[in-house]
Amino acid sequence: MNAIELIAPEGPGRQRQAQPARRVGSLLSRPAGSAPGALCGVLLACFASSLFLGFAGCERFGRRAEIGQMAPDFTVEDLSGHPVRLRDFRGKNVFVHFWATWCPPCLVELPALARFEKRLDRERFVLLAVCVDRSGPDSIRAFMEAGGYGLEAYLDPGGRVAGSFGTVRFPETYLIDGEGVVRYKVLGSGSWGDPAWERLLHYSLQRP
User: Fold this and answer.
1) CA-CA distances (angstroms) from residue 125 to 129, 136, 143, 160?
2) Cα angle at 84 between 86 and 156, to 5 degrees?
3) Residues forming beta bridges with residue 126, ordered by sequence position
4) Secondary structure of the chain in the HEC alphabet?
5) Interatomic CA distance for residues 113 and 171, integer angstroms
6) Please, which residues bridge with residue 124 across strands?
7) Cα(68)–Cα(62) distance, rounded to whole angstroms?
8) What does the pLDDT read at residue 4?
9) For the packed helices 104-119 and 43-61, what is the interaxial angle rounded to 10 degrees?
10) Does residue 96 contact residue 180 with C-beta atoms inside 8 Å?
11) Which residue positions in the chain have pLDDT lower than 50?
């Protein structure tokens, strides 16, 4: 799961394309090192939990958020209990990343995602790492601090917001432009240290 599976628009339709590792412009600073090795976890539990939450979301909410369409508006909470709304970030490009503490691939990805977030231009981009655990904010805060992830987490207990996007597995990431339109989505783990992201962000998204 090292290579990103990126779905992007292509003409009137869309196609899957793997972004090549190619050094490009300087939208971001020099990429950090590769993510650490896989963490220990119970894969069967991860599969069973993701299967339950994913199909429950499909059954409850129906279709997926599609590229070229408006993203579902949503409200999550930060770890202090303050509401955070997607519409609050209009004019900026927003990465919405759904993950869970019980999902080993999510935990492997978090350090690289945190480094990627620190390299983003804060005037143009926001990253919301939305955790679907049912645990309370104190548990998630302790988990993030113990892991030293350096990434702010937002709460979606039980995956209701993830379900509104049609997310059926974790991790999964959506890139939403300044007008609220879904522009790209990454299914599974993303290669956040891949220089190809620089080319994608530099050439595909207009400045707000």
Assistant:
1) 13, 27, 25, 24
2) 90
3) 94
4) CCCCCEEEEECCEEEEECCCCCCCCCCCCCCCCCCCCCCCCCHHHHHHHHHHHHHHHHHHHCCCCCCCCECCCCEEEECCCCEEEHHHHCCCEEEEEEECCCCHHHHHHHHHHHHHHHHCCCCCEEEEEEECCCCCHHHHHHHHHHHCCCCCEEECHHHHHHHHCCCCCCCEEEEECCCCEEEEEEECCCCCCCCHHHHHHHHHCCCC
5) 11
6) none
7) 18
8) 33
9) 70
10) no
11) 1-62, 207-208
Residue 183 is encoded by which pair of tokens?
A: 């522009």
Lookup result for tokens 């509104």: 164
pLDDT digits (tens, 9 = 90+) for 3-23: 333 433 333 333 333 333 222
What's this model's pTM, rounded to 2 decimal places?
Answer: 0.70
Instruction: Read off the amino acid at residue 155.
Output: L
Closest CA to 200 of 177, 168, 166, 170: 177
Cis, bond preceding 171 (omega within 30 deg of 0): yes
Burial of 167 (0-12, 13-18, 19+ CB in 10 A): buried
